[in-house]
C-alpha cells in the first residue's frame, strides 16, 4: 500500500507513444486503477511533440515508449540538460531481457510491453513513495553511456548516504549479507547496499559474472585461482570465496569459453 502521507498526491503525467492503441491501453489502465494518484495531462505521438508538451505543461512523470520512428525515446534526453531534468521517466519497451541490463544497472525504471497491471502497479507505487527527483540526472547519463558503450558499462549503487557510479569491470565480487549486499570493488572499496543478491543475477547474462555460491556473485575476470579440492576461489583482492560443488564444472567450462 502507498504511504499514507502520499495517498492524495496527484502526479501530472504525459504518455508518449507513436501507436494510438498503445496510448489508449496505458491511459485506460492508469485511469481505471490509479486515478487517485495519476492525472494524464497530455498524450504525444512522437518526441518533438513530447518536448513541447514537457516544456509547456511541466509534468511530474513521463511514460515514454522507446521504439518510435525518427526519434527514439532515448533521443528525448538530448533535448534537455540532464542535470536539470525535473520529471521522472518510466520507459515503456518491448526490449528483450538481454537488452534490459542497461536499465537495471543504471537504476532506471521501465515497463515491458505488453503492459501488465502488476508491472504498472509497482511503477506507480514507487512513484508515490519516492516522488522527489533524486539522482535522476546521473541515472539518465549512466543509462545513455551504457546503451552507447557495451564494453565498459557502469552500475548505479545507492547507499543510505551516497550514490556510487561503479564500472562493472571494477567489481571483484558481490556478497550477500542477509537482506543486503556487499560490493567489493577495485577503486571504491566495499559498498553496502540494501538489496538482495537476487536483484543482480541479471549480470550473469552477458557481463562475465557467475553465481559461484548462493551468497556470492563473482566477476570471472578477477579470478586468480580455483581450488578444486577445497572448493574455493581466490580473487585478485586476495580474498577467498566459496565455490558450490555443483558449480565447479560449470565455472570451469565457462572459463574455458572466455
3D structure, described in words:
With 258 residues, the chain is α/β, with parallel strands linked by helices. The strands form four sheets. The protein has a five-stranded parallel β-sheet, sandwiched between helices. Residues 1-6 have low confidence and may be disordered. It has two domains: 4-146, Response regulator (Rossmann fold, 3-Layer(aba) Sandwich); 169-257, Beta Barrel (OB fold (Dihydrolipoamide Acetyltransferase, E2P)). The protein has helices spanning 20-33, 47-57, 101-105, 117-129, 136-148, 248-257; strands at residues 11-16, 38-44, 61-65, 88-93, 110-112, 154-158, 163-167, 171-177, 180-185, 190-193, 209-213, 216-219, 223-227, 232-235, 240-242.
Identify the overall geometry.
elongated
- The percent range for helix content is 25-40%
CATH class of the largest domain: Alpha Beta
Our estimate of the beta-strand percent is 25-35%
Biggest sheet architecture:
5 strands, parallel
> Unreliable segments (pLDDT under 50, ≥5 consecutive)?
1-6
- Mean pLDDT equals 86
Discrete helix count: 6
Tell me the CATH superfamily of the largest domain.
Response regulator
Number of strands: 15
Key features of this structure:
OB fold (Dihydrolipoamide Acetyltransferase, E2P); 258 residues; elongated; Rossmann fold; 5-stranded parallel β-sheet; alpha/beta; disordered N terminus; 6 helices
Summarize the structure.
With 258 residues, this protein is α/β, with parallel strands linked by helices. The chain has two domains: 4-146, Rossmann fold, CATH 3.40.50; 169-257, OB fold (Dihydrolipoamide Acetyltransferase, E2P). It contains six helices and 15 strands.
Amino acid at each position: 500500500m502507498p504511504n499514507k502521507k502520499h495517498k492524495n498526491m496527484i502526479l501530472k503525467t504525459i504518455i508518449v507513444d507513436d501507436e494510438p492503441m498503445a496510448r489508449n491501453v496505458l491511459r485506460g489502465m492508469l485511469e481505471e486503477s490509479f486515478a487517485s494518484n495519476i492525472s494524464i495531462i497530455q498524450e504525444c505521438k512522437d518526441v518533438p511533440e513530447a518536448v513541447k508538451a514537457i516544456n509547456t505543461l511541466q509534468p511530474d512523470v513521463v511514460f515514454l515508449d522507446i521504439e518510435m520512428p525518427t526519434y527514439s525515446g532515448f533521443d528525448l534526453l538530448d533535448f534537455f540538460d540532464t542535470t536539470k531534468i525535473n520529471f521522472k521517466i518510466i520507459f515503456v519497451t518491448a526490449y528483450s531481457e538481454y537488452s534490459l541490463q542497461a536499465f537495471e544497472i543504471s537504476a532506471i525504471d521501465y515497463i515491458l510491453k505488453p503492459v501488465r497491471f502488476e508491472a504498472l502497479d509497482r511503477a506507480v507505487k514507487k512513484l508515490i513513495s519516492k516522488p522527489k527527483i533524486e539522482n535522476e540526472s546521473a541515472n539518465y547519463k549512466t543509462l545513455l553511456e551504457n546503451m552507447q558503450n557495451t564494453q565498459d558499462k557502469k552500475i548505479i549503487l545507492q547507499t543510505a548516504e551516497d550514490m556510487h557510479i561503479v564500472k562493472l569491470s571494477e567489481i571483484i565480487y558481490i556478497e550477500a549479507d542477509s537482506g543486503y549486499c556487499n560490493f567489493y570493488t577495485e577503486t571504491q572499496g566495499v559498498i553496502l547496499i540494501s538489496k538482495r543478491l537476487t536483484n543482480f543475477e541479471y549480470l550473469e547474462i552477458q557481463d562475465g559474472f557467475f553465481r559461484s555460491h548462493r551468497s556470492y556473485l563473482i566477476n570471472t575476470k578477477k579470478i586468480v585461482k580455483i581450488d578444486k579440492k577445497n572448493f574455493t576461489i581466490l580473487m585478485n583482492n586476495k580474498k577467498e570465496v566459496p565455490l558450490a560443488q555443483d558449480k565447479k564444472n560449470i565455472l570451469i567450462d565457462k572459463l574455458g569459453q572466455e
